From TrEMBL, chains A, B:
<dbReference type="InterPro" id="IPR001647">
    <property type="entry name" value="HTH_TetR"/>
</dbReference>
<feature type="DNA-binding region" description="H-T-H motif">
    <location>
        <begin position="39"/>
        <end position="58"/>
    </location>
</feature>
<keyword id="KW-0804">Transcription</keyword>
<dbReference type="InterPro" id="IPR050109">
    <property type="entry name" value="HTH-type_TetR-like_transc_reg"/>
</dbReference>
<dbReference type="GO" id="GO:0000976">
    <property type="term" value="F:transcription cis-regulatory region binding"/>
</dbReference>
<dbReference type="GO" id="GO:0003700">
    <property type="term" value="F:DNA-binding transcription factor activity"/>
</dbReference>
<dbReference type="Pfam" id="PF00440">
    <property type="entry name" value="TetR_N"/>
</dbReference>
<feature type="domain" description="HTH tetR-type">
    <location>
        <begin position="16"/>
        <end position="76"/>
    </location>
</feature>
<keyword id="KW-0238">DNA-binding</keyword>
<dbReference type="InterPro" id="IPR009057">
    <property type="entry name" value="Homeodomain-like_sf"/>
</dbReference>
<dbReference type="Pfam" id="PF16859">
    <property type="entry name" value="TetR_C_11"/>
</dbReference>
<dbReference type="InterPro" id="IPR036271">
    <property type="entry name" value="Tet_transcr_reg_TetR-rel_C_sf"/>
</dbReference>
<dbReference type="InterPro" id="IPR011075">
    <property type="entry name" value="TetR_C"/>
</dbReference>
<protein>
    <submittedName>
        <fullName>TetR/AcrR family transcriptional regulator</fullName>
    </submittedName>
</protein>
<keyword id="KW-0805">Transcription regulation</keyword>
Amino acid sequence: MQEPAPKRGRGRRPAAEVRQDVYSAVGPILLNEGMGQLSFERVAREAGVSKTTLYRWWPSLGVLILDCYVHAVENELAFNDSGDIKADLTSQLTAFTRVMTKTRGGRVLTELIGAAQTDPELAAEYRRLYSSVRRQAAVKRLAKAQEDGQIREETNLESMVDQLWGAVYHRVLIPDLPVTQTFIDALVGNLLSGTAHSRNPNHLS
Amino acid sequence: MQEPAPKRGRGRRPAAEVRQDVYSAVGPILLNEGMGQLSFERVAREAGVSKTTLYRWWPSLGVLILDCYVHAVENELAFNDSGDIKADLTSQLTAFTRVMTKTRGGRVLTELIGAAQTDPELAAEYRRLYSSVRRQAAVKRLAKAQEDGQIREETNLESMVDQLWGAVYHRVLIPDLPVTQTFIDALVGNLLSGTAHSRNPNHLS
C-alpha cells in the first residue's frame, strides 16, 4: 500500500494503474476459467507487472485472487434502489446466483471459503475484503427499506442477510438441492411475508 | 456393508456390534478433541477393531469421521414435537448451535465442508450421510407444523431449512458475526412472522 511516488524516469507507473492492470487481467480469468491455473508467475505475465510488485501488495495467491474477484463482480452485485425492496432483493439475489452457479467465479469463492476453514489468515482476509463488504452493502439497502416503511422497524437486518444470501451459500456449499429461481422467490417471500399461519396466532406469541 | 455371517468360532463379532464399538470410541474424541489427531491406526486401537475391517466399511478417513459424527450428535439434534413449532425450532437451533460452537465437533463439520469443496467423493458422502438426513428431519417437523395449521400450506419448507440452519452455517463458515441466542431468536421470528411492514402491502404483492 505504501508505494513510493512513481519515478517515471525509471518507467515505474502509478500504483493505482498497476493494480487496475492486475484486476483487469485476472478478473476475466477467474470468471471464465476459475482459479486452478493461476500462479504469481501467470498473473505477472498477463498483467505486465513484476512478481516483486505482486508480492509487495498481496501476501498470498489466495488473497490476490480474492481481491481480483471482488473487483470483477462488484458491478454485477451492486444493489439497485427502485423503491421496491421485494423486487430489488429478488433481482440482486438472481444476479448473485448467476455469478455463483453460472460462472467459474462461484467455484473460486466456494474453494476459497473451503480453504479458509483451515487457514485463519485467508479467513480474515476473506471477511475483510469480501464478506463484510457484501454484508454492509446488503444491510444498507435493507436499512433504506426500513426508512421507506417497507420493513418493520424492530427487524434484525443482519439476520436477514444470513436468511437470504446465507441461505444461497448454504445450497452452494452443501448442494443437497439446486439454487433455482423458485428457491430465490421462496427465500424472499418467506422472509418478507412470514410463514406462520395467521389464523393461529396463539402459537406464535 | 455386506458383512458375511459372523463366524464366532473364529472370534468374529457381529457387524453391528463392531460398528457400534467404532462409533462409541470415535464419537467422544470428535466432540472433545476434534479430528486433528485421528487416523485409521488410532481408531483401530481405540475401538479394538482391525484396520482391515475399518477399510472394508469406510472408504476414507473423512467418511469414517463423518459417519461417527452423525451417530455422536443424533440424539442432541433430535427434533422435539411439543405442538409449538416456534418453541421447537428455537430449542433445536439452540442445541445445534451449541454443538457447532461449543464442542470441537463444530470444527470437524466445518473442516469436512471445507474439504468437500475440492473433494467430490467426500461431498457426496457428506450429503448422503449427514446433510440430507438432517434436512429430511427438519422438513418432517415443519410438515407436521403445517398439518397442525401453524405454517401456511403454500410455504416452501425446504427453503425454510436453508433460512434457519443454513443461516447458522453461513455465520459459522464465514464468521463475520457470532451465532448468539439473539441471532437464533431473530431467525425464527423473522421467518415465522415476516419482516415486511404490514401497513405497506402494496410493495409486497
